[in-house]
Design brief:
The protein is of the alpha/beta class. Helix content is about 25%, strand content about 25%. It has 14 helices and 21 strands. The chain has a 9-stranded mixed β-sheet with strand order 6-5-7-8-4-9-10-11-12, sandwiched between helices. The protein has a 4-stranded mixed β-sheet with strand order 13-14-16-15. A 3-stranded antiparallel β-sheet has the order 2-1-3, with no helix packed on it. β5, α5 (about 135-145) and β6 (about 155) form a beta-alpha-beta unit. The longest helix is centred in the middle third of the chain and has 18 residues, at about 195-215. The radius of gyration is 26 Å and the shape is globular. The protein starts with a strand and ends with a helix.
Length: about 450
């Protein structure tokens, strides 16, 4: 009989070795090696290389001779009938694909799964909902509240992979929902559910099921306190699509953002509002984000950010307050802190504003986060407006990238941004001079160009 041996496995990357170290040799993280007892007498887990038949080895063919598959071109996609989700997925679910949906606890992941069942399940399109976190009666209570009572929707409260595989082979579902991957387990493994080994092997097994049955599989994943998906990093590499469900638990709006998509763009976002009847798509997020903004208040400026092909208007709020301390405080909410500090330095050096004795705060209203530099001009205008205690015209939109010399640099898709501002009822728009020369101005809005922040602030204030 073979002896039991001990391995030390990194809970961050899955690296294995025979001795404990304070730092993982693979990912260089500290105190991540955990002791695992390996019992060789147990059966081996079903790995991908072991379950593929030997007689199905494909022969290499020329790339030009590969037949086109309409599945990945869009014809084989199955729309979820939730427009905001279809936008992020690129048109719908692809048969045989593996999707991973992550989000904070209580953000609405299980609610979204039930709404997918409500819109998609039918006698021709069956769905198997596997829950490992709640009982069947708990899911039934939520389903009754959301009005999910459709044919073709099956529910299974199970965590063992062998029982799930038997249910899949019996029902042959078109869509398999797993809530969540951290609760699934292979009985052949001695480690606990949620460990690096269990998550990796269970995901590999679901990949095999998806390809073998041509079933779309949607996995729900937990996130860590840092905001990343729990489990090994290889988890995101194994799946076809990674979606993040974002939002503040204190606010009603939610966003789905794609960070990986083998069948579509990763630049799209879906905006939802959480209500008593579940998630409702917001077709006009610009109007939703600008609702309730203050009028004629210093420090409030509207700018525009591009989220994929969608222009999104948002309010940038700036607050400048005198301080008696030697080091002023800087706080950024919704944008990169270092970017805000750089813009404050540009405003002081190139704009002539004395900011070294003032605390500065920047907030993107609505819980949004802006990563593109097109919002730089909005931040500069909001801080200058509060510093001068002069309000910016509420029907004027400001956008542009600001350089270290104080220049306004050109931004992408300026015409779509201006068209969105005109559609929302704005009367004027200030943008970089380089964009104004080639811009087709829509009716009802006046466009002004500025080459420097001095010109920008001169027009606004």
């Amino acid at each position: 009989m073979s002896k039991t041996k001990t391995l030390y496995v990194c809970n961050a990357c899955g690296h294995e070795q025979s001795k404990w170290l304070g730092i993982c040799p693979s990912c260089r993280n500290y105190s991540t090696l955990e002791e695992k007892v390996i019992r060789p007498e147990g059966p081996k887990p079903p790995r991908m290389s072991a379950i593929i038949p030997d007689d199905s080895t494909p022969s290499p063919i020329l790339l030009r001779d590969v037949p086109a598959d309409d599945t990945f071109g869009g014809a084989g996609r199955k729309p979820t009938k939730i427009p905001e989700l279809d936008r992020v997925l690129g048109g719908g679910l692809v048969p045989g694909s593996l999707l991973l949906l992550g989000g904070d606890p209580g953000i609405g992941k299980s609610t979204l799964l039930l709404q997918i069942c409500r819109h998609m399940a039918s006698e021709e399109f069956s769905i198997l909902y596997v829950t490992g976190e709640e009982s069947a009666s708990q899911i039934k209570m939520r389903a009754d509240r959301l009005g999910v009572n459709v044919p073709g929707c099956y529910l299974l409260a199970e965590t063992d992979m062998s029982n799930i595989q038997a249910a899949v082979e019996e029902i042959q579902p078109s869509l398999l929902l797993i809530d969540s991957i951290q609760t699934m387990r292979l009985s052949e493994l001695s480690s606990l559910p949620g460990s690096v080994t269990q998550v990796r092997e269970c995901t590999a097994f679901f990949t095999y099921l998806a390809k073998q049955q041509s079933t779309a599989v949607l996995l729900v994943g937990h996130v860590t306190k840092e905001g990343s998906l729990a489990g090994p990093r290889v988890l995101e590499h194994m799946v076809d699509t990674v979606l993040y469900f974002e939002g503040d638990g204190k606010d009603a709006h939610r966003m789905i953002r794609g960070v990986k998509n083998r069948f579509g763009s990763t630049q799209e976002i879906g905006v939802f509002e959480m209500g008593e009847t579940g998630l409702t798509g917001i077709a006009d997020p610009s109007a939703y984000m600008l609702a309730g903004r203050p009028i004629d208040v210093p420090g409030s400026v509207v700018t525009c950010s591009m989220e994929g092909s969608r222009p999104l208007l948002m309010e940038v709020q700036g607050l400048v307050s005198y301080t008696n301390f030697g080091t002023p405080r800087r706080t950024a909410n919704g944008m990169d802190y270092n970017r805000m500090v750089m813009l404050i330095a540009v405003l002081e050096k190139r704009g002539g504003f004395k900011m070294q004795t003032y605390d500065s705060y920047v907030n993107i209203a609505g819980g949004l986060r802006v990563d593109e530099p097109a919002a730089d001009a909005g931040v500069i205008a909001a801080l200058a407006s509060c510093h001068k205690n002069k309000a910016v015209d509420p029907y004027t939109m400001v956008m542009g990238e600001v350089g270290l010399a104080g220049e306004l640099r050109a931004i992408s898709q300026a015409e779509r941004r201006v068209a969105e501002a005109a559609r929302q009822g704005f009367k004027s728009c200030i943008l970089p001079q380089a964009n104004k020369t080639k811009l087709r101005v829509p009716e009802g809005i006046r466009v002004m160009g500025a080459a420097h922040i001095g010109e920008l602030l001169g027009v606004l204030l």
